[in-house]
Amino acid sequence: MVEKSVHEINKKIEDGSVNVVTAEEMVGIVENLGVEGAAREVDVVTTGTFGAMCSSGLMLNLGHSEPPIKIQKVWFNNVEAYSGIAAVDAYLGAAQISNTRGIQYGGAHVIEDLLRGKEINVHATSYGTDCYPRKVLDTTITLDDLNEAVLLNPRNAYQIYNAATNSSKRILNTYMGELLPNFGNITYSGAGVLSPLSNDPTYETIGTGTRIFIGGAQGYVIGNGTQHSPSSGFGTLMLKGNLKEMSPEYLRAASFTGYGTTLYMGIGIPIPILNEKIAAATAVRDEDITTNVLDYAVGSRDKPVVRMVNYAELRSGSVQIEGKDIPTSSLSSFKNARKIANELKEWVKHGTFFVSTPVERLCCEGSAKPMKQTQAVPLVKDVMSDFIVTIKKDQTVQDAAKKIWENSFNHLAVVSDTGELVGILTAWDISKAVAENIFDSVESVMTKKVLTCAPNEPVDLAARRLDRYGVSAMPVIDTQRRVLGIITSDNISKLLARRY
Amino acid sequence: MKIKICIPTERIHNPIISESIIETGILLNIMVANIDSTYGELIADVKDSRFDKIKNALESRGAIVAILDRPIHRDEEECVECGACISVCPMNVYAFDENWSLCVDEKKCIQCGMCIKMCPHGALKLGE
């Protein structure tokens, strides 16, 4: 049995005799020396990750103006921060987007610009009090002008993260990047073998108070992250570090097309090898870390699992789905993760970084709950018109015109002899047919590619589809393509009128 | 070389490409083709030595031909070498080397711009 203490390891760091390796190197060491040998030989294993971490932000203090102001609302380069804290404190979230530049520029970009020494415009407003009489403030600041600039990240360094793909027929713009139609690609995130929490999955050494590498500086774990969900393998960390000590090499703003802004964070966590159990955990390889490939075509909280996959497969460049090789893209940089693990290794080796004992262990059981919703989400079936006029495809255009006129109904669902939806015909289509002197069958003038929806879909999804494709109605169909009703922009307007 | 052939609306119903290929006997390797009832745009590969001849044949039929000489440009400072560009590129311009550095094979690029939208760091653009 090998038993070491953090105190003993720190003594070795101090006198320069410490043996520190990266989590990537540890795999081979455990293979060669066995768990016990590795635990005896190695004192510290360093991990690293560098990827998009939306749940990041900057807590800052501006100092007092003359005359003083109690800031109620504040913008940095037109990106709003939250200032309902005290007079001149604010929290700038990485994912907040600019009022003027949209998703091209957000909180993350302000944070990177500050770090690069750029001047930032500040605009603040207030209601005014006897002690804080000022109502408006405009100034420019740099990082040096702030009293505190603390990166305070509520949820970073996911233990694992789902990979993403897209079964639909159109490109999806997501926080997992651009997902090509018909399973055109798979995107994933995380550093696999180097991933901090994957190397300490039961949180033996990573806990509240653990000293870490964050953005090129020394910072701390301050607890579990929000949405910490250890029972499903989705542990997360809440982190803090001093922006003034960081480097733009390890902190970079990003913007995902059609989605929004985020911050790429470089995080490294040292794992003191106190015993065999910890040594064994740090020998984890890419092939041991599994995750699910989810279908992002489903715009719902529960996305279907397409298949299970491990990081060795993801990092190989392609993954098979239904017998086809699908190219993969990483959204996090393995090269930078490796650089971070190596940088941290040098710090420990040269006695500038000491490992720590957590003051409190992180919870290693439990799951994040979904949102409690007290208002039922209206479904398509709740607002659709179940009165629907259908027509057979071989009837004439005149039959169709008559049906529309008799029923005062703008949309005809065209059905086959067995009752399946095959097309849609609108009053507009008939006008066009008449204008062009076409009086053949309905089939020749109907729209064949019909947008449809299911009765149990939330109305919001149906509304988004109507809007995206610029159509005024969609037949509601069951799994056999039988028409159950129709949802029109009219139905949705009525729903909104009821709501407000 | 890579060329872009635009077929204007009024010519879209004529078999311009086929006629030009038959007339000149020059083979075009069509890499991207977006053609609908209103407009056509193709990107093709053709031997440098045959370019003038096929250009004349296409343009005499009303197509507009341009040489694509703005290969993709990567801002190495901005790029974090994540590899997001790899899976969306139809021509495999991007790949990792054994050190997980990103390699760019500009010669393969057909300038479709997919990678530009994908890059989270705005590090890619078509050069001038």
UniProtKB/TrEMBL annotation, chain A:
UniProt key word Repeat: yes
Span of domain CBS: 384-441, 446-500
GO biological process: methionine biosynthetic process
Keywords tagged on the record: Amino-acid biosynthesis, CBS domain, Methionine biosynthesis, Repeat
One Pfam assignment: CBS
Highest taxon of the lineage: Archaea
UniProt protein name: Inosine-5'-monophosphate dehydrogenase
Source organism (scientific name): Methanosarcina horonobensis HB-1 = JCM 15518
UniProtKB/TrEMBL annotation, chain B:
Classification via Pfam families: Fer4_7, NIL
PROSITE patterns found in the cross-reference section: 4FE4S_FER_1, 4FE4S_FER_2
Domain of life: Archaea
Tagged with keyword Translocase: no
Keywords from the named record: 4Fe-4S, Electron transport, Iron, Iron-sulfur, Metal-binding, Repeat, Transport
Location of the 4Fe-4S ferredoxin-type domain: 70-99, 100-128
GO molecular function terms attached to this record: 4 iron, 4 sulfur cluster binding; metal ion binding; oxidoreductase activity
UniProt protein name: Ferredoxin
Origin species: Methanosarcina horonobensis HB-1 = JCM 15518
